[in-house]
Amino acid sequence: MLSLFEISAFLLVLSAAFGWLNVRVVKLPHTIGLLLMALAASGCLIVLDLVVPNSNVKETVAAAVGQIDFFEALMNGMLAFLLFAGALHVDLGLLREKKWVIGIMATFGVLISTFIVGAGFWGAARLFGLDMPFIWALVFGSLISPTDPVAVLSLLKSVRIPESLEVKIAGESLFNDGVGVVVFTILVALAAGGGHFDLAHAGEIFVTEAVGGAVIGLVAGFVTVRAMRAIDNYSVEILLTLALVTALYATAQRLHMSGPIAVVVAGLLIGNRGADTAMSEETRAHLFQFWEVIDELLNSVLFLLIGLEVLVITIDPSLAGLAVLTIPLVLAARFIAVSVPIALLSLRETFTPGSVPVLTWGGVRGGISVALALSLPVVPEKAPIIVATYLVVIFSIIVQGLTIRSLVRRVVFS
């Protein structure tokens, strides 16, 4: 069994090697290149194991990857830092201007998509002869409906789009994952509990998680801004933000509040009010550069892990048809979840041409969906949910990620 240090070394070496190859040879967007190379390496190991059964190379690598609890590594580790780093760069003024469309898509949009995907997945499962209870189909809908902020923000770095449209995509992705995790938690508890539903209790959980997370993030962010304003030492101020992220996320989780929403709110506050009123030019430059490096490093490891997970996920070939059918289902649900809020809000504000197709196609799914699927209890429904989730995520990152630029050029700038 490898130590934590050895596992970290293994991941960093692979990330660095694949990153170098991508820059030097492949020349794809960084995270997509890493994911593709990790998938290719995984595929080569699987083929090698079939050709040379006694090589044990695949088993050795799979054992190393299998030691990593993907859910714990992402949801209780990397995610706090990635969300804070992403929120730092979002313009709070623009976010306020677009608060209604972002708020509606991040809440009602997730709920709409959850029920559309859930109903469609339930029907598709029956079509393929699977006895999928409707509540477990809804669980799948809840984990696949939120766009992944890590994947989306990584994607936005390589695509030039109008600022007003960019802030909608970024703002929605930063908040809807917190909402999605809350909905997922409620539905899993309902599914595992035999279907008894208490609407009042579910509403209480939702308010405590979402609103509580926002409030605790706001308070912690303000305290940190005040502390930074009292000094001018960039190394200590960077340390303050690290302490903020770790302590805030841990506290929110302990109080059963949304850690993702808490760190996003705090990140928005530090990146806007903090940068304007509490940082010198030198501190601002060092702090933002530090968090950009953290963002790139953790993104590299995360997308590498997504590609390597194929070595430890048991994929039943008989579920391939259901998984493939799920891709257009998720895209259709995303289209409806985007179109309805924009149609309603277009009565009072003007939207950038091409907003619906760009928001639909740019709604990339990523590691959070995989982590939630892997965290499900051991039930018969887990296998089809994991296979469908993984295929949707891979399609989303690679196909949607590689084609979004040409879509933007065609529908926005044409």
Describe this entry's structure for a reader.
The protein is mainly α and 414 residues long. It folds into two domains: 4-66, no CATH class; 70-411, Na+/H+ antiporter like fold (Up-down Bundle). It has helices spanning 4-26, 30-51, 57-66, 70-88, 92-97, 99-127, 134-144, 149-156, 163-192, 199-229, 234-254, 259-277, 281-308, 320-345, 355-361, 367-374, 382-411.
What is the secondary structure topology, with strand pairs?
Blueprint: H1 4-26, H2 30-51, H3 57-66, H4 70-88, H5 92-97, H6 99-127, H7 134-144, H8 149-156, H9 163-192, H10 199-229, H11 234-254, H12 259-277, H13 281-308, H14 320-345, H15 355-361, H16 367-374, H17 382-411
Helix pairs in contact: 1-2, 1-13, 2-13, 4-11, 4-12, 4-13, 4-16, 6-7, 6-9, 6-14, 7-9, 7-17, 8-9, 9-10, 9-12, 10-11, 10-12, 11-12, 11-13, 14-15, 14-17, 15-17, 16-17
The gist of it:
By secondary structure, this protein is mainly alpha-helical. Helices cover 79% and strands 0% of the residues. The protein folds into two domains: 4-66, no CATH class; 70-411, Na+/H+ antiporter like fold, CATH 1.20.1530.
The dominant shape is globular
What's the CATH architecture name of the largest domain? Answer: Up-down Bundle
Beta strands, count = 0
* Major pleated sheet: none
Given helix and strand content, the structural type is mainly alpha
Features:
single chain, mainly alpha, 79% helix
